[in-house]
Amino acid sequence: MLNILLHNDLFIALNKPPGIASQPDKTGDITLLDLAEKRCHQPLHPVNRLDRPVSGIALFAKTKAVMTTLTEQFRERSVEKVYLAVVQNPPPEQEGTLVHYLRHNPLKNITTALPEAQVGTDRAELNYRLVGKSARYFLLEIHPITGKHHQIRAQLAALGCPIKGDVKYGARRGNTDRSIHLHAWKLTFEHPLSGERLSLTAPPPEDVIWKALLVTG
């Protein structure tokens, strides 16, 4: 069953559960796009893309023109994105800014965060803040400034704070459902026609760890 955050004539915003692909991939599995198109009774166009193990806000436009308008906002960095991440180690500071230079390996589908620029790397920047903790885990609020492939996952791993369940980026063990504890929590952008600022919030998955950390945050 789809968790719809906002649905109008131009787009639909969903709270994506972990474990489902946002759009078709080589597995051939049913995707969030498939389910959204069935719900809307028309073809849709993905605006933002969340990795399969990630949860949170996913936008699908109803026309290519709306998709272009929304994706341009992402490119211009006028969209405010806020993520939540559960990590297994405390960050060195309560809050800070991370700047790395990312190199993507398409064969292994993994991104490496390097401290200095090199040929073929892309600059990545995010702000983080520690907002909760338990005996074993720490909750970070993440504000990505750039939007690169696996950026948050790679940068937190480089900080020594891999995301819970993210074995690809250094977590000690995977989650049983193959999810990772990274959630696209809030999204603020302009309505494609009116220009009104819209703010969406997607509750994290029903999970004891998310619940415990959000209570302490």
Commentary on this structure:
This protein is an alpha+beta fold. It has one domain: Pseudouridine synthase, CATH 3.30.2350. Helix content is 18%, strand content 35%. It has helices spanning 32-40, 64-75, 151-158, 208-216; strands at residues 4-7, 11-16, 45-46, 55-61, 80-87, 95-105, 110-114, 122-133, 138-144, 182-190, 197-201. Strands 1, 2, 3, 4, 5, 6, 7, 8, 9, 10 and 11 form an eleven-stranded mixed sheet that branches. The longest helix is centred in the N-terminal third of the chain and has 12 residues, at 64-75.
Secondary structure elements and pairings:
Blueprint: E1 4-7, E2 11-16, H1 32-40, E3 45-46, E4 55-61, H2 64-75, E5 80-87, E6 95-105, E7 110-114, E8 122-133, E9 138-144, H3 151-158, E10 182-190, E11 197-201, H4 208-216
Parallel strand pairs: 4-10
Antiparallel strand pairs: 1-2, 2-4, 3-4, 5-9, 5-10, 6-7, 6-8, 8-9, 10-11
Descriptive labels:
single chain, 217 residues, alpha+beta, Pseudouridine synthase, eleven-stranded mixed sheet, 4 helices, 11 strands, 18% helix, globular
